[in-house]
Design a protein that fits this description.
It is globular and about 70 Å long. Helix 8 packs parallel to helix 10. The chain has a domain of 254 residues. The protein is mainly α and 486 residues long.
Length: 486
């Protein structure tokens, strides 16, 4: 019943927008696009329908409202940036299929030390490194059982069924938060690490004609993520949920036993790791490779598909007794890829294209170009603040879909490069630390039962403020040099 209420409310808002805005001298094309945007955002926030289904609305409504033809609309669902993410999904699937991601995580934990603070730091680093290449949700789901097994070592077998003391409770809480926050922060570092980054890259290329380089983004994203990760670690273990250095004893052997149980690294794991490293190096050095004859047209999407292609071509190991070769991936593995995310990207790009073709972005840019010139640091701080706290209430991908084209057009109106406002908004969309519904990793660790909503809000609020500060500083002093905009 509640979903029906949300469906009807969204439709009512759509109709009111489409019929009433022209009364206030808004062009009908603009009113139509704004109406569709409001309908999509409302259904995204209320989850009246699956968010991936809502992303298909432009295919139905834009041709009916004469905003864009069906051909102009659907071309956005086959954008090259969507295939960049698809290639990333294939690489991630190979890591998961051969359990290489677990080996990487346990290897990092085995060398971080036995103290509780070191274990927490190792967990955050492991999660963040994996999240750079695997989706935030998949990373959190993979790391949670590892973190829970470590936590259980401290709180099980207490005499008389006693409750764990404050040190053990705090350790359990911070371990859960380290998984969620590590997954959120690590994904920021690469263009394929989290959906908002890919949405931004697609919108900037389609709407503003600017291609975000994979290596350029990493040049900014990696140090940003590292600083935010270290700041989060310090705030958590020292201030928000204190964990004493020597309050608990942890046997390093447990992690080593888990690692030993996996056995020696297999031939398949070595080959997956090799292809993964080759793909990452191609992304990082793409601009240098483009200087070579015949490689001038090389782009990040081609590299991603090439990496995924190799996973289907390279055999997992030597031939079996039957003589049959098994590739690192087969097509059944691709069936479990989250295809809905790709549709969500397409819907966002279609909406951004309609906002451009109807004149909304140009009108927004012209409006801001008439205003008094404001300091860039103040503008970017305001956008970052709004996006960080909005991302607590709605999908970070949906937020980026709406805010990136608007922020880019506002930047143009202020005589700034569109990336200078679009990138901070994108970073902010992944910095939701306060509420379980902010991001899937937050919801996953909250379901563990080791953390309360009050604890997450308390810790997340200060981490949100830290993220806003770092985003504003990086956007002002670091980003122009990373993207040669200075």
């Amino acid at each position: 019943m509640k979903k029906l209420h949300y469906l009807l409310t969204g439709l009512l808002l759509f109709l009111l927008t489409v019929f009433l805005l022209p009364v206030f001298s808004v062009e009908q094309d603009m009113a139509n696009v704004i109406g569709v945007a409001i309908l999509m955002v409302f259904w995204w926030i209320s989850e009246a329908l699956p968010i991936y289904l809502t992303a298909l609305l432009p295919m139905i409504l834009f041709p009916l409202l004469n905003v864009m033809s069906i051909q102009q609309t659907t071309i956005n669902y086959g954008n090259n940036v969507i295939f960049l993410f698809f290639g990333g999904f294939l690489l991630a699937k190979a890591l998961e299929k051969w359990n290489l991601h677990r080996r990487i995580a346990l290897s990092i934990l085995s060398v971080t030390g036995t103290g509780p603070r070191k274990i927490i730091l190792g967990t955050m680093l492991s999660t963040a490194i994996l999240s750079m290449w695997i989706s935030n949700t998949a990373t959190a789901m993979m790391m949670l059982p590892i973190a829970l097994s470590v936590v259980n070592l401290f709180i099980k077998d207490l005499p008389g069924g006693a409750s764990p003391d404050v040190n053990k409770r705090n350790f359990a809480t911070v371990m859960m938060l380290s998984v969620a926050y590590g997954a959120n922060i690590g994904g920021i570092a690469t263009l394929i690490g989290t959906p908002p980054n890919t949405v931004m890259a697609g919108i900037l290329e389609n709407t503003f004609g600017y291609q975000v380089g994979f290596s350029n983004w990493m040049l900014m994203g990696v140090p940003f993520s590292l600083l935010l990760l270290m700041g989060s670690y310090y705030l958590l273990v020292h201030l928000m949920v204190p964990v004493k250095r020597n309050a608990l004893e942890f046997p390093r052997e447990v992690i080593r036993q888990e690692l030993a149980a996996m056995g020696r690294i297999t031939q398949a794991e070595k080959r997956v790791l090799g292809i993964f490293c080759i793909t990452a190096l191609l992304w990082i050095f793409r601009q240098q490779l483009q200087l070579l004859p015949g490689l001038q047209g090389l782009n990040d999407t081609q590299i991603a598909i090439f990496g995924g292609f190799l996973m289907y071509l390279v055999p997992a190991a030597s031939k079996e007794n039957s003589g049959k070769e098994v590739a690192l991936l087969d097509w059944s593995d691709a069936q479990s890829i989250p295809w809905g995310i790709l549709l969500l990207f397409g819907g966002g790009l279609a909406l951004a294209a309609a906002m451009e073709s109807s004149g909304i972005l140009e009108t927004t840019a012209n409006y801001f170009s008439r205003g008094d010139e404001k300091p860039y640091l103040m503008v970017v701080s305001l956008f970052s603040f709004s996006s960080v706290f909005l991302s607590e209430l709605m999908s970070n991908t949906a937020l980026a879909t709406i805010m990136v084209p608007l922020s880019g057009s506002i930047a143009t109106g202020l005589n700034l490069h569109p990336l200078l406002l679009a990138a901070p908004v994108t970073l902010a969309a992944s910095a939701a630390f306060m509420l379980p519904m902010g991001t899937p990793p937050n919801a996953i660790v909250f379901a563990s039962g080791h953390i309360s909503i009050r604890q997450m809000v308390k810790a997340g609020f200060f981490l949100n403020l830290l993220a806003i500060l770092l985003i504003s500083l990086f956007a002002t002093y670091v980003m122009p040099y990373c993207f040669n905009l200075g």
